[in-house]
Predict the structure.
Amino acid sequence: MNGSVLTLTMNPAIDKTVTVDQLTFGELNRIRTVRTDAGGKGINVAKVLKRFAVPVTAWGIRAGREGQTLADKLDEYGIPSFFLESDGQTRTNLKVVDASTKRTTELNEPGFTPSPAVLERFESALEHMLKNVPIVVLGGSLPPGVPADYYRRLIGTANRHGVRVILDADGEALARGIEAKPFAVKPNIHELEALLGERLSTDADIVRAAGSLLDRGVELVLVSMGGDGSIAVDRRRAIRATPFPITPQSTVGAGDSMVAAMAYSFMNGLSLEETARWTSAAGTITASKSGTDVCTLDEVKRCLGLVRLSDIPLPV
Ligand SMILES: Nc1ncnc2c1ncn2[C@@H]1O[C@H](COP(=O)(O)OP(=O)(O)O)[C@@H](O)[C@H]1O
Ligand SMILES: O=P(O)(O)OC[C@H]1O[C@](O)(COP(=O)(O)O)[C@@H](O)[C@@H]1O
């Protein structure tokens, strides 16, 4: 595949990551370290693709002074970006890392409310953005006031242009988005359980659940399960990837790194097995980094052989 990947982030963020010795609810918690990164799902995907030397443009909506900070950070990273401006303020998402447990607690703001006029401009601009674009990545929550079927509409436009869509969303935005048949989706296990309204306790349950999305027209489903790894499913195979041991620093951006590695795999015509390996290595390395820092190509290549893969039988 040639051309430049387009990532869409309707609700980007400044990610503020703070570390505390031990997070205690209802008490004073002293912060040890603070860092800020440009965040939001499509933005993180663009950060990884840039490091993987895949041409990428980050597109989205921003607002206010924080929106300008976000655009400046993307300039610093050398990522071409294009944002429509909305009233309000780009959100700041707080990530609290507990140094004793290595667990990250996320507090994500709802974000600005784009006007119907901005949303219309965004939708019609997409038509013109799709020239020479092989893959569109739609990632993250929809800001307040955006209709739940907005991703469905954008996916419809991309599909009409023959562009592969990877959708990484949750809740209603994911449910409605799937109706437009994106090429691939990357729910985490909680998002998949919420989507299907059932508990998925075994690998077989997850493969069956992924199969129900394939039946709705999705071609590839990648389910991530934090430290338990991931399962990639298409019509022919289901492959479980077990990550190598790491000391998690901040898991923020790990899922987005998987999505980026998925786009990289499509760009390079990789098999499902190779895709399972690349996506797992990328997510795992990012989980071992602080803040919303992401994996590099060299790091991923070095760790590919450490990912353990096994087939899960497809239901008959
Ligand atoms: N604690 C961890 N140890 C090892 N790998 C992890 C850990 N947390 C996340 N990962 C890696 O990151 C990937 C994505 O994590 P996950 O939390 O499922 O994504 P999301 O951020 O989308 O919820 C996992 O499949 C795994 O490869
Ligand atoms: O749009 P949402 O669902 O609020 O998520 C936004 C947050 O997700 C992130 O993109 C990280 O996502 P992942 O941990 O799933 O990779 C952060 O950078 C951002 O703060």
User: Anything to note?
Assistant: The first strand starts at residue 5 and ends at 9. The mean pLDDT is 97. The pocket of adenosine-5'-diphosphate (ligand 1) is lined by residues 188, 224-227, 229-230, 243, 246, 248, 251, 254-255, 258, 280, 283-284, 287 (CB under 6 Å).
